[in-house]
Amino acid sequence: MSAMLLNKEKWSEFIGKLSGKNLWAPAVQGEVKKYAPVAEGETVELDEGNTTVPPKALLFPQTETLYRFSTGKEELEFPGLDEEMVLLGVRPCDARAMALVENLFRWDFDDPYYLKRRELTTLIGLACNEPELNCFCPSMGGSPDSTEGLDILMTDLGESYLLETVTEKGKAIVEEMKDLLEEAPADALEQKEQLAKGAREKIRRGVDPDGVPEALPQLWEDPLWQRISAPCLGCGICTYLCPTCYCFDIQDEIEGSAGRRCRMWDSCMFAEYTKHTSGHNPRPTRRERTRNRINHKYSYFVDKFGVIACVGCGRCSTLCPVNIDLIDILRQVKAAQ
Amino acid sequence: MSEQFKPNIVAFLCNWCTYAGADLAGTSRIQYPANVKIIRVMCSGRVNPLYVVNALQQGADGVLISGCHPGDCHYMEGNYYARRRLKLLKELLEFTGVDPRRFNMSWVSASEGHKWKEVVEKAVEDAIAAGPFDQFRRRQIGW
Amino acid sequence: MDLDKLRKTAAEVVSRDDVKYLIGWRRGTFGYRVAPHFIEDAAGVDELIFSPLCIANLANYLTLTEKLPVPRGQEADTRKVALLVKGCDSRAVAQLIVEKGIKREDVVVIGMPCPGMIDWKLLAERYPETDVAAEIGWKGEDFLLVRGEEEITIPRAEVLAEKCRLCRHPNPVLSDITIGEAVEPWAVAEDSGVAEIEAKETAERWDYWEEQFSKCIRCYSCRNACPLCYCEDCILDRLDPIWVNRAVNFSENTAFHLARAFHLAGRCVECGECERVCPVGIPLGKLNRKLARTVREEYGFEPGLDPEAEPFQASFKPDDPEEFIL
């Protein structure tokens, strides 16, 4: 993994070169921090903290057209999906999540929409020097400077950014930028290590998930699920804003003699998620749905893919309006063993 | 010179009064703009305000709801409920920034063919002044 | 407000034979969070609090808590639910009784006169959250934040929740037991906080709402947090016929919010939960408060004050305003 330095004086040139490639970066729009397209000539300011909506929304859009149809045509019209994209400022947890989620999109069927987009996207990450209150990536096997899932990892060293190339795609970008970059001296790498260490130490909250995947099947009828789910509103905040959640619904929309089939995010926390056409619902209350969500992330996904479907980004705990706190839930699971 | 914009107005008319009034206008050969597309409902009280929102989503530039005069409702009270409901809907639409000229409500009885003509003319005039509706038109979103 | 008295009263209530459980608030797991606390026996009352962070409307749980069919041979549990309510929360309870969503005899209402709640986001801007759950209380009209040894007074105007700024009913409108002294209602803005938007031209108003509705991710948190949105078969979930498409785009988001605001017209008790829970900060309260003001000023009615009142949209007066009708 080679390491280059980008002096911040060259930042706007760097952005200028990237903005021709369909560049997206975190921006605050209407008080919400999320990924927004960067037009040619615009600047990007990467500050601390993470976006509310994770970058999964770019590879797995909240609503996407699968195909269009009309009574006049024999063939279905599929989307082009040929636009390359560069995501800048992706946090290591979100990148890890994308690597994780790919397991699902390649599982029993290669999802052409997600995988094509992923293939065409370059992820330039930004290491976290100042973790947020609810960050707990080390507990979940990640770290503030993890490179998993990224093509390049940037670290803010103050006057410059350190760029570490991770993949061939990352290498290609670094090649293009070589006029703006210089070799990173040893002390820059040393500084990065210190920052990463400092970041890890700043993380105040966490829980060791050791034993949780094994314990969960035994706790199926435990009263802790009722306790945890009692305040739950049954909304979609935790699932929609979770970088490792990927459930979706498929609906048709017809207008006259033409229409489209589209898929959109769905949430296992919604009551109608498992409602049958008969009216029967095997997960009739929030208790069953909460139990299912925790079991999916910390037990079923582990059984299938060997990894916990959680990267410790903390969004669910930060944004839950009734303080259902994942770290607290995991502690309760461990205590109930 | 560009063609004048021809608005699409969806009208929900109560079966017993306004629909009959519009019929009367027709049989009396009263001329009025052809921009109104009529949906007959049994009572103005049956009109769910979501129909109005939905109509605007699907391409209407204006919506008109018309029923019996207060006291004359075939079902006794339907139009009173409609009056309350649609007043609130109108306030809501205006507050959100939808041109108030797009939404009209009227009382037209079965014998008021001429009034129907006036109501339609006003609705069309208002919709033309407000322009083509595009604010939250349903569009199949891009790829 | 005497915390010991609250806990003692709660313990007594929850120990009654005819009470299933009591819903109150407890300190959250970090920062300025407060969680709804479900207490089934007297031991649970030690965690009960009443602080300026107890903004969540617990009346929501009266209808949110699912009632499953009773298995054969078993009797239904008809015991009451006890809950703590502030002024706004009690209005929700009253409105639910009006609509027959709940029965008066099925609830034990413990009223807490409320001096005003904090919007934790405003507080966090000044004093960032930490991993230790914060201690906050009232100090006269202002608030007192305790951090270790430090005591910080925070002026009311800086962190008071918007809905509290406009509150007309800080004292519960109905209760079986009241804990604490009645609060003097404060002068509120007559415009319900919507004058800024009303002052805009139509096109400008639309620009404002267009930006806001574009943010919506249709998480349905606003609907689920609303104590008065409790239809088991919500029209916005219906798929056949589909009223609002599940696809998340601007047109559907607008329809969703207009539909919900309309369904709450004359019913919304302005508890502000919808606004509070929105993860992307859409000022939903403005839509509901605008309609609430119309109902108040033009029809002389305020929902949630009288459990015997008639539901607003299910009633009429012969002289209702009709100046807008041709």
Outline the secondary-structure elements.
The complex is a heterotrimer of chains A (337), B (143) and C (326).
Chain A: E1 3-7, H1 11-18, E2 23-29, E3 32-37, H2 56-59, E4 63-70, E5 85-90, H3 92-105, H4 112-120, E6 121-126, E7 152-156, E8 160-165, H5 168-176, E9 181-183, H6 186-202, H7 212-215, H8 224-229, H9 237-240, E10 248-255, E11 258-265, H10 286-305, H11 315-319, H12 326-336
Parallel strand pairs in A: 2-5, 5-6, 6-7
Antiparallel strand pairs in A: 1-8, 1-9, 2-3, 4-11, 7-8, 10-11
Chain B: E1 9-14, H1 18-27, E2 36-41, H2 49-58, E3 62-67, H3 78-96, E4 103-107, H4 113-130
Parallel strand pairs in B: 1-2, 1-3, 3-4
Chain C: H1 3-15, E1 19-27, E2 34-39, E3 48-49, H2 60-64, E4 80-85, H3 87-98, E5 107-111, H4 120-126, E6 135-139, E7 142-147, E8 150-154, H5 156-159, H6 162-165, E9 177-178, H7 195-198, H8 202-215, H9 221-225, H10 250-263, H11 273-277, H12 284-299
Parallel strand pairs in C: 1-4, 4-5, 5-9
Antiparallel strand pairs in C: 1-2, 1-3, 6-7, 7-8
Poorly predicted residue ranges of chain A = none
Globally, the shape of chain C reads globular
* Structural class assignment of chain C: alpha/beta
Radius of gyration of chain C: 21 Å
User: How is the biggest beta sheet of chain A arranged?
Assistant: 8 strands, mixed
Radius of gyration of chain A: 21 Å
Largest interface: A-C, 43 and 45 residues
Largest sheet of chain C: 6 strands, mixed
Question: What is the 3D shape of chain A?
Answer: globular
Widest beta sheet: strand line-up of chain A: 3-2-5-6-7-8-1-9
Arithmetic mean pLDDT of chain C: 94
Could you walk me through the main structural features you see in this protein, from its secondary elements to its overall organization?
The complex is a heterotrimer of chains A (337), B (143) and C (326). Chain A is an alpha/beta fold and 337 residues long. Helix content of chain A is 33%, strand content 20%. In chain A, the strands form 2 sheets. An 8-stranded mixed beta sheet of chain A has the order 3-2-5-6-7-8-1-9, sandwiched between helices. In chain A, strands 4-11-10 form a 3-stranded antiparallel beta sheet, with no helix packed on it. In chain A, a hairpin with a 2-residue loop joins strand 10 and strand 11 (258-265). Chain A is globular. With 143 residues, chain B is of the alpha/beta class. Chain B has 4 helices and 4 strands. Chain B has helices spanning 18-27, 49-58, 78-96, 113-130, and strands at residues 9-14, 36-41, 62-67, 103-107. Chain B has a 4-stranded parallel beta sheet with strand order 2-1-3-4, with helices on both faces. Chain B is globular and about 40 Å long. Chain C is α/β, with parallel strands linked by helices. In chain C, 32% of the residues lie in helices and 14% in strands. Chain C has helices spanning 3-15, 60-64, 87-98, 120-126, 156-159, 162-165, 195-198, 202-215, 221-225, 250-263, 273-277, 284-299; strands spanning 19-27, 34-39, 48-49, 80-85, 107-111, 135-139, 142-147, 150-154, 177-178. In chain C, strands 1, 2, 3, 4, 5 and 9 form a 6-stranded mixed beta sheet that branches. In chain C, strands 6-7-8 form a 3-stranded antiparallel beta sheet. In chain C, strand 6 (135-139) and strand 7 (142-147) form a beta hairpin. The model of chain C has no long low-confidence stretch (mean pLDDT 94). Chain A binds chain C through residues 29-32, 52-53, 62-63, 133-134, 204-205, 227, 230-231, 233-237, 240-241, 249, 251, 253, 262, 264-265, 267, 270, 272, 284-286, 317, 319, 321-325, 327-328, and chain C through 28-31, 33-36, 38, 56, 60-61, 64-66, 68, 128-131, 211-212, 214-215, 217-221, 223-225, 237, 239, 242, 245-249, 276-277, 279-281.
